[in-house]
Amino acid sequence: MLFLIFTFFELIGDIVKNRTPLVTVGEYLFNLIPFIIYNVTPLSTLIAVLITFGTLNRTSELTAMKATGTSLYRVVAPVLLLATVLSVGLFAFDETYLPGANKRQEALLSVIKNKPAQTFFADRKWMSGQTTANGQPTRIFYYQYFDSDKNVFDNLTVFEFQPGSFNLTRRRMAGNGPSPAPPSPATSPSPYPPSLRSTSSPATSKKKTVNRRRCPTPSSPAISRT
C-alpha cells in the first residue's frame, strides 16, 4: 500500500501536466500490484522467518522443544516447505501472469508521462517487406516505437537487400514517419514515408559534371634586346 501511495505522489506532477484521467492512473496502479508482490514477497518471507525464530529463541521456546525431544530439523521443516511452495508459486507467477501485467503497466506509464506509445513485443519490431520468388525478403523494416492510434513509427530503419545474394545494399533511417502503405497504380510506387524517400540511389546515381572554365594562359612578356 505504501509503495502505491509513493508511486502516485511521484506521478502526480505528470498527471496534472498531461491531464491524465484518473481511470488511467488507477489502471496503472492496479497493474503495478503484481510487480510489487513479486519483488516484496521474498524479502517479506525472509524478515518473517527471522522475526519468528528470534522470538522463539528469546522466549526459550526452542530450548523447550529440544528438551521434549523435538529435533531442530523438524522445527525447520515447515519453513523449508513454505519456502519451496513460495518459490514454485513465484516462478509460475513470473512465467504466466507477470509479463502481461508489466507490459500493460509500462504502456500506461508512457500514457501518463505523455511519451510515444512503445511496442513491448520484441518479435514485432522487425517486419519483412517485399519478397522474391524464393521467399527471401528484399526489404526489412525495424522500428523502436509504434503509435497505433496515429499509425506512426518512431526511429524507423529500412534495410534493402540484393535479391539472390541477400547482401545489404542500402539502409534508410528516419526519426518518425507513417506506416508504409502498399503501392497503388494511382499513387507513387514508393512504399516509404516521405522522410525515408530519396531522389536517387547510390548504384544508379549519375556523376555530376562540373563546368570548368579554362583559365587563359598568361602571354609571355616581350624580351627587349639590348
Question: How would you characterize the overall build of this protein?
Answer:
Helices cover 45% and strands 14% of the residues. It contains 5 helices and 5 strands. Strands 1, 2, 3, 4 and 5 form a 5-stranded antiparallel beta sheet that branches. Helix 2 (22-58) runs antiparallel to helix 4 and helix 2 crosses helix 5 (98-112).
Observed structural traits:
226 residues; alpha+beta; 2 domains; 5 strands; 5 helices
Gist of the model:
Helices cover 45% and strands 14% of the residues. With 226 residues, it is α+β, with helices and mostly antiparallel strands. Strands 1, 2, 3, 4 and 5 form a five-stranded antiparallel beta sheet that branches.
Topology of this protein?
Blueprint: H1 2-18, H2 22-58, H3 61-67, H4 72-96, H5 98-112, E1 126-128, E2 139-142, E3 145-147, E4 152-161, E5 168-178
Antiparallel strand pairs: 1-2, 2-4, 3-4, 4-5
Radius of gyration: 34 Å
Helix content class: 40-55%
The count of DSSP E runs of length 2 or more, i.e. the number of strands, is 5
Number of domains: 2
Number of helices: 5
